[in-house]
Every structure is written in C-alpha cells, then in structure tokens.
Design a protein that fits this description.
Length: 468
C-alpha cells in the first residue's frame, strides 16, 4: 500500500484508513469519463449527478482521491479566481459586479454542500488578511491594489483597509504597517474535503477506480493498462499533472508549492498571535506566502515554490533542510516567538499554471471534451466553480456560469495559449524569481539606500508585468 498518509499534514489527520478502491479491470461504456479524483473531477461528477441523476459517470484515478494538489494545498477556500481583475476588466460595471459576486459566493456554496452532504472538513469562514508585514513599501503596494479594486466597482464590503491597530485585532505581527481584510475566504482541512466528496459521489452512484493510471486519452476514449472506457464526454481533470496526458502539458505546466506545519501551539501563544476565527493570512511580497491556524492549533505556512526544467513533475516532497529553513525564517519574521518552534510536517505538491496565468473552463460538444484548470494555486475554491461550470456546459444549461470571460464555449484545446519551448520557460522563470528575491532582500534591509530600493522595485515590477 503506498504511503498516502505521508503526503501532507492533512492526509495524516484523516480517520480514513486510506485503503485503495478497486482498480479498473474491465471495459466500460459511460456517458462521462473523468480522469482524476481531485477537486475538479469530484465537483464535476457531483453537480452532473445532482442535475442529471441518470448519467453514467466513472472516475479513473492514478493513485487515490486527494493524492494530488487537493490533498496537499494550504487549505485556503477562496472566493476568487487567479487574475480575476484582468479577466473582468473589460466588462460593463453591472456585469463585472455580478461576476465578482459569483466568485465571492464560492465559499458559501461549498458550505451549503458540506451541510447538505454531512462533510466535516474544519470549515471556518474568517476571511483573509493580506498584511504589509515586513517593510514599509508593502503598505504602498497594498493600498494601490485596494484602489484598483475600488476602481473596478468593489467596496469596503469586499475589501477593507486595516490600520496597524485594526490589524492587531485579528493578527499580531512583528512589523505591522497595515493590511487588507477580504471576507470571502474560508480555511479548511483540504484532505477531509476531497475524501468526503469522494464518498458522496460514490453514494450517488459514481464509481471511482483508483490505482489506474491513464495511458492514453482522446475524444470518446480513455485507456489504462488493463481496460478501456468509451464515453460521450471525457473530462481530463488533472491540473498539475497535465504533462502526463499529452497534449495537455503544452498548455498547463506543473509548478511546486512547499508548506510546513508546526507542532500544536499552546493557547497562550495563540493569545499573542491572534487568528481566533479561522482567518487565513499572507504577507504582501511578490512571492506568495500563505498561512492559517489549523483546527488543532498548528501554524500551517507555505511560501514560494519552484519549477523544474522542461516542466517535470516533482515526485519527492521530502523537503530539504534549506527548504524548511526558508519557510521557518519567513514565518519567524512575522512571529518572532515561533523562530524555534518544532516543525512536525513538511510537504509540497504540483499545481497547474496556464500561460498568461489565465484559468480556463472549456467545453467542446464536437469532440466531447471538457476541462477546467490553470487555477495557479487558488484551486480549492476555483475547482468548485469549475465543476459547476463544466456540469452546466456538458448538460447544455444556459446559466450565468457559462457566460464568464474564463469560459471557452464550443472551442477545443487550440483555444488555449501554449507555453514557449524550453529553455525559454526555464530562463524566464529564473530571471523573474531572481528579480523577486532581489527585491525582497533589498527592501527587507532597512539600511538600503532609497535609490537601490526604487531600482529593485522597478526591476521586479517590470518582470512581473512580463509574466502576463
């Protein structure tokens, strides 16, 4: 039996014995074949069955439900979509507001499913705190971001500025310059959600075949080493593992996210830190950091990540001493009292990144292929939207979900933007990341000359713009 429990803190906390479901041993004829028992595949199956119980659906999974990003992420259930500001910028004000409301409603939609289906995944909707927490320039960049959001029609009900004093009412960090509170975010144990969804869709009549890697797929057919599945619809729901199913790897690259978790911390320590309502938090540098207080009072903290040449998957997520030390340093900058705390878990995962950092939900009735992906690390919530949207597209339902700018209706894979060939991707990634690291090092040093600070910001900003 594979050591699936060692995938992450979240999988380690499951009561589930993690016994493998039966593999696919015989040929099938179904209406919908879904590749991957992660969030996208499970949500798609769930909403299809809710709306069309007569459909025959099968899910084929290479490992076990939650093996991929669904069981490894940081546990942020966000009412957002990567690049939403750019995606919605061209819409009329009323339509843009409706689209923002659709996104912001994702955590509440998930909460309704949890209540209806009896899934306990430690759901707490405390919002997210985006903190200016390490150097003063972060305050300026956060305020500029907030101004951009307000210019798009959002209000303080969506994103609200917190002064250092107001921020301290929710989180107490070493150098508070202020921050933004966004209410449309919940924190969860993501493994409990994905395993709970798997049980629910099974009870709805959807078989999940595990330990069954797909060796070939095309319109109408999915093949494993032992059997074939014929289907009117094929839904490759593999996100960070797209390069295992050519030609998807041209459009979606795996990048890695790395996370650590401390031992459970005493109530006295949390009295010093805050985060008493399940808030998520991050500090506002260009390289993403993210954290939460787990239900059993650990600090779960992720930061930065990596990209391997030629878009290779990372399989070994036993973090090195230096990888753990960097994350310890970063959360120690925020909470000095935790600099020597014991870290009990460290892990990582592969997530999918699309070109121009644009998520997509695609459906082509001519070929019977539907897919969603490119969530860029924000997939815990976005997959719910993706599953709902794919269900409506496959069933031909005319709803607001299918009229969003991230939806590609009646278009094939060629509608997606392909990544450049190597070594362009590798060189570009490293140039961009080095500019971010340089900026962070320069700004974190209070003795750096003003001209050097401005230069570092300018170079990093130029490189960030180049990414899009």
């Amino acid at each position: 039996m594979p050591a699936w429990r060692n995938i992450s803190l979240w999988m380690d906390q499951l009561d589930d014995p993690l016994m493998a479901r039966p593999s696919l041993e015989h040929d099938l004829d179904v209406d919908v074949a879904i590749i991957g028992a992660g969030y996208t595949g499970l949500w798609t199956a769930y909403y299809l069955k809710r709306q069309a119980p007569e459909l025959k659906i099968a899910i084929i999974e290479a490992q076990t439900a939650g093996f991929g990003a669904s069981g490894r992420n940081g546990g942020w259930l966000m009412g957002n979509l990567l690049g939403e500001d750019r995606l919605l910028a061209g819409l009329a004000l009323e339509q843009r507001r409706a689209s923002f409301d659709l996104l912001h409603g994702i955590p509440d939609e998930v909460a309704q499913v949890l209540a209806r289906e009896g899934i306990d995944c430690d759901y707490r909707k405390g919002g997210a705190l985006y903190c200016a927490a390490r150097y003063p320039e972060q305050e300026g960049s956060l305020r500029a971001y907030l101004d951009t959001l307000y210019a798009q029609g959002l209000t303080e009900a969506d994103y609200r500025w917190l002064s250092p004093q107001q921020l301290a009412g929710q989180i107490r960090i070493a150098k508070p310059y202020g921050g933004i509170h966004a209410p449309h975010v919940a924190t969860i144990n993501p493994a409990k959600l994905v395993r709970g969804l798997a049980r629910v869709v099974e009870n709805m009549g959807v078989p999940i075949y595990e330990s069954s890697p797909v060796t070939h797929w095309q319109s109408g057919t999915v093949r494993t080493a032992k059997a074939s599945v014929r289907a009117a619809w094929v839904v490759p729901a593999v996100e960070g593992y797209a390069n295992t199913l050519p030609p998807l790897g041209r459009y979606q690259l795996p990048v890695q996210s790395l996370i650590v978790a401390t031992e459970p911390l005493p109530a006295s320590t949390w009295d010093e830190i805050g985060l008493s309502h399940g808030q998520a938090f991050g500090e506002s540098s260009r390289q993403v950091t993210y954290g939460q207080r787990s239900a059993d009072n650990r600090l779960v903290f992720g930061a930065r990540g990596g990209y391997q040449f030629a878009g290779k998957l990372r399989h070994n997520f036993d973090l090195t001493d230096s990888e753990v030390a960097l994350r310890r340093y970063l959360f120690g900058e925020l909470f000095p009292q935790l600099k020597k705390v014991r870290i009990t878990h460290s892990w990582g995962g592969n997530l999918g990144m699309s070109r121009r950092f644009r998520p997509h939900m695609l459906c082509d009735h001519r070929t019977g292929i539907a897919l969603a992906g490119g969530y860029g690390g924000e997939g815990v919530g976005a997959t719910n939207l993706g599953g709902r949207t794919l269900a409506d597209l496959i069933l031909g339902r005319d709803t607001p979900l299918i009229h969003q700018p991230w939806v590609l209706r009646e278009r094939g894979l060629d509608a997606l933007k392909a990544w450049e060939p190597e070594p362009c991707r590798w060189l570009g990634y490293n140039a961009i990341i080095r500019s971010f690291v340089h900026e962070d090092q320069v700004l974190a040093n209070p003795n750096t000359a003003p001209w050097r600070r401005k230069l570092a910001i300018g170079i990093a900003g130029f490189m960030e713009g180049f990414m899009h």
